[in-house]
C-alpha cells in the first residue's frame, strides 16, 4: 500500500458550493453559496479571452509579467512585490509552503475561511484556531497572545469569511506591532472591494510599513473571474521571492492573465457593479433584520445567519425552493448577495423560515 503522509489523515478535501439545480416548481434556481459575482465578465474581457485562446498550444508567461506590472501600477508597489497564483487560495498554499512545516504553528481565527485548516493541515504544521469574539469579529488580542516561538504565520481574514465583519485598521495596526518580525502576517482581503467602513483595515497600508505583512487579493469576487483562478499577493522581497519559488509552474493560464489585465483596465465599470451589490447588501441586511434575524455586521458580499443546529435544515429548506446557500453544520449559513431576484427569494424564504 502506498504510504500517504500522516498529516493528511482525516483531512477533508475542500467542499465547493453545490451547483444550483432547478427545484420542483421554482422558476430559476440560484447558487448563492460560493460568494461569486452574479454578473458575467464584461464583453471586452470575453473578447480578449477569445483572442488569447488562439495561443493555447503555448505555455503562458510563467511570471505573468503583464499582469504583475499592471497590478504594481494599480497599487503603487514595485513589480517585485507582486506574486500571482492559482486563485488566492493557491497563493495561500504557496505562503504556507514557504513558511511552515511539521513542528511550526499557524494562527488564525475560527470560524473563518474553510481552506485555512486544509492548507495548514497539508503542510503538517499545527493550526492554532482562536475563537471569534462577540459579533463574530476577530479577537486580535487573543490571537497576539497565542503567538509562541513556534509561530510562523498568522492569517487575518478581513472581511471575515463566512461571518462578514472587517477588522478595524487601528486594531490590526496595533496587532502587527505586537507580532515578532520573523512571523508573517497574511492579511486575506478577498472581499476588500466590498468594504465601505472607513475604519476598516487597509492591508496594503500596513504592508508599506511592515516587511512581515503580506496581503492576498483575488480576481474571483469583485472582478468576477472566479472560473479563471487568479489571485495575487503583495509582499516584500523575501516573501514575494519565496512565493515565486513555491508557485506551480505556469499555474495562472494565459487566458486568466489576459482577463485579469483587461478587467483592471475596466475597473471603474466593474466597481459600479460592486456598488450595486453593496446596495443590495444593505437592502438584504435591513430586510432580514426587520424579520428579527441577528446578523453580524458585514463588509463583504455575503451575510451570516447564525442558525446553530438548524443550519443544514435551513439550507435544505432553501434548496427545495431553488436557492442554494452554504450551510456550516451546527453553526450557521452563509448566503451570498447576488442579483436582486436571488436576494428577493432569500428575503422571502428567510421570512417564511422565521414564521414557521
Ligand atoms: N480568501 C477568502 C477569505 C475567500 O473567501 C476565498 C474564496 N472563497 C479565497 C481566499 C480564495 O479565493 P480564490 O482562490 O478564488 O482567489
Automatic annotation (TrEMBL):
Keyword Transferase part of the UniProt annotation: yes
UniProt entry keywords in alphabetical sequence: Aminotransferase, Pyridoxal phosphate, Transferase
EC number(s) from the headed UniProt entry: 2.6.1.57
Domain called Aminotransferase class I/classII large: residue spans: 30-339
Sites of N6-(pyridoxal phosphate)lysine modification: 221
EC top class named in words: transferase
A single GO molecular function term of this UniProt record: aromatic-amino-acid transaminase activity
One Pfam family it belongs to: Aminotran_1_2
One GO BP annotation of this record: L-histidine biosynthetic process
Reactions that this protein is recorded to catalyse: an aromatic L-alpha-amino acid + 2-oxoglutarate = an aromatic oxo-acid + L-glutamate
Names of the cofactor(s): pyridoxal 5'-phosphate
PANTHER family: HISTIDINOL-PHOSPHATE AMINOTRANSFERASE, HISTIDINOL-PHOSPHATE AMINOTRANSFERASE 2
Family statement drawn from the similarity comment of this UniProt entry: Belongs to the class-II pyridoxal-phosphate-dependent aminotransferase family.
Assembly description: Homodimer.
Role summary: Aminotransferase that catalyzes the conversion of aromatic amino acids and 2-oxoglutarate into corresponding aromatic oxo acids and L-glutamate.
Name of this chain's protein: Aromatic amino acid aminotransferase
Organism (species): Jiangella alkaliphila
